[in-house]
Structure formats: C-alpha cells, structure tokens
Amino acid sequence: MKRTSVYGVLSAASMFPLIQWEEEVEVFGWVRTIRGSKNVSFIVLHDGSTFESLQVVVNAELGIDLSKVSSGASIRVIGRPVESKGQGQEVDLETTVVELIGECGEDYPMQPKRHSMEFFREHPHLRMRTKLFQAIFRIRHRAKMATHEFFDYGAFIQVDTPIITGSDCEGAGEMFSIGEDFFGQEAGLSVSGQLEAETAAMGLGRVYTFGPTFRAENSHTSRHLAEFWMIEPEMAFAELDYNMDIAEGYLKYVIGEVVKKCPKEIEYLEDYIREEEKNFKKEDKSMSLMEKLESVLSDSFERITYTEAFEILRNSKPNKKGKFEFPIEEWGMDFQAEHERYLVEKHFNKPVIVRDYPKEIKSFYMRDNDDGKTVAAMDILFPGIGEIVGGSQREERYEVLKEKMTTFDISHDDMKWYLDTRKFGTAPHSGFGVGFERLVQFITGMKNIRDVVLYPRTPGKL
Length: 462
Prior knowledge:
- The chain is 30% helix and 24% strand.
- The chain is built from twelve helices and 16 strands.
C-alpha cells in the first residue's frame, strides 16, 4: 500500500473527500491525552499545524505496546484516515503502527487539566504545549500577518528603525542605557522608532515600522512590559483626521481577520475566560470576549475632544460611591485607565477616540492647535484595556518646533537631523503607535500582558 507522510493530517484531510483516502499516512506529533479500554485505545495527537487535534484509534488486537505512551510524549503513527464515529472531530486515524519517539517523564507538569495562569508563568518553556497558549500564539501570528497585509494594501513601505539610538523620543528618561564607550556618546535601547520613521516618510510618503522597543519603567502592572513590539506608521501630507481614519481602519482590519480566520481559537478562549469568571461577582464581570471584538467591528468609533471627555467624566457617577479613585478635578490633568474605561464601557459602550489634548501633558513633537492650549493628538480607547493607540499630527513648522524643543529642554544640536526635516521641504505629517502586545492582549482577552509574549521581560524578571 502507498504511504504518504503528512504534516497536519487534519488540514490535509479537509482538502479531499474521505473516500479518496485509500492510502496509509504517516503522522508525527505529541500526545495530548490517551485513554483506553480492553478492546481499543484512543490517543489525541497534535502537531502544531492546526489548532485541531487528531484522534488516533489503536485496536487492542494489534498488540501494540502503549505502556510508555503518555501525555506529552512524541510519537510516530501510521494508519488510514476514516470518518469518525465520535463527536468533536470529522476524521479518525485507524493506526497500524505507533512508535515512541520521545518519552515523557512522570513529572511532566503540563498534564491535561486546568492550571492557573501563575502556574503557566512559572513554566514558560513548557506552556506552549497547552491548548490555551497555542490559541493565544496562533492569534498573535494571525494579527501580525494582518498588520503587514493592511499596510501593504495601503501602499505603506516597511522600514526598520534603529534598536540602538541616542534619541529619547518621549523625553521621559526611560531608556535602557548601554553606555557610551563603543559609540563615543550616550546610547540606549529605543523606546520608539517614530522620529526616524518621520525622516523616511519625508521621502517615501507612507511608511511603517514593526519592531522591538524597550522601556526602563519600573512598572509591575498587567499592562506593561520592559521589552515589547511597536507598530508605528508615519504619513506625509496627512493631518489628524486622516490619521484617525487609518488607525481605526487598521484596528478593525486586524481584529476582523482574526475573527474570520481563528474562530476555533476564539471559541476556546471564550470558554476559558467564562470558566475563569465563574467566581467573579456579577458587577466585576466584563464584556465577553466576542462582545468586545464585535464592539470594535460593528460600529464607527466615537470621536470626542479632550474637553468633551473631561466634562463627561466630571459629571459622571462611575460607581455606587459616585467617585473615581483619581478624582476629575482640573482641566489639563492626564486621564487614568479608570477614566478611559468609563468612557468606553459605561458612557459610549464602544471604542472612543479622544483628540486635542492639553499641550502640557503631551510630547514636544505634537502640532500646536490654533487655540494655544491643545495639540493635535489622539488616543484610541478600547474596552477592558483603555488606551491602545496613541498618535498625533507632528509639528511641521520649523520655528515652532525649535521653540517647543527649547521649552522641553531638548538640545537643538543633538536633534539637528530632526530639525532638518522641517528646514528642507517641510510638509504636514502624522502617525500613531500601537503596542502590539496590548492589541493581542485585547483580542485574546488575557488579563495580563505577560501571557501573550513567549518570554516576557519585566522588572526583576528576565
């Protein structure tokens, strides 16, 4: 009989009618579970090629020794695909050969039962063996592919900006210093590729970066990492309104692609989260995962100014006590996560774009508005997570930018290269930044950003 080696037998089986599977197939994978009776044993096998598993049927009359085949072991199987008689799968593999490749010790921690997220974080090198993390990282992959597709369709050119830099984009002093001996000047790990991307946009028109960034912020929250990936598009001849359109379109495209192409993964995560929330108080339960995703896809984002948001928050009653933990007191204050989530989850019940922030709380490169008090900046707020995008129209006026750099105590000499982009053929331009892990955290419904990274880097944890 002819034999074919198949990677991802379920994927292959779905492409052909079962009647055509007259030949044996050879399959390699890891055992998820094994159970048996006197007459037959069932091995649930996975190989990573699909989120689905393959049920291998081993008849006892074949005399195959399964004594060392356990959860976590890797095996080679030869058999014939047949239409499944059980529930939950379309194809079974009636096997004739089961060969143990890698035995799994009895102390294997990832047994097929429910584990806590804290347990998984203690075993990052093994947690990818579980369905939970396979679902998360398949979604992360799909979101990354959709990112490149969206910008490619929009005629953006990807550029790779430096990881080692002398420019602290945000001016917050949160760069990881790597000394000055090698480069002859102070250098650090980049917190953003925006400034360099702006120079590329002045020649290529529409560019985007997608790479690692670093922040030496001693934050231990569920929303922060020391090493994370950023998506930062920059567009020449684009003002703030257009910038907001592109940002909204990007988020909808990526989430839409995940919903369309990862339905099994989302369904699994939905069930996992629902089980996690069983012990929550009713008032502590948030929107379901699919409700959050649909809230992004089903309607246009609400667009309001900072001043309008401030008035809404000042006149709101966020809880039974009618108070925020951080009171809304003076115009010009920076909103906290609780304020952002109130706007999205309670007041508008959909994503919100807040624009025109007070200039004192925003970066030097943001364009001053005509009112003299605000800048052309915007943040996109999502349910369950708060800010997911930050962006602005950049200050393109040479003299105004010089004056702002003086106000922010930024050296004109050190940033001469940046000023040159305004001196030689300046043009209105804008862009935004998306923390990729925060986007994946939103799509997967994970409570902690550390659970959407292969090996998270956080303060005190390498």
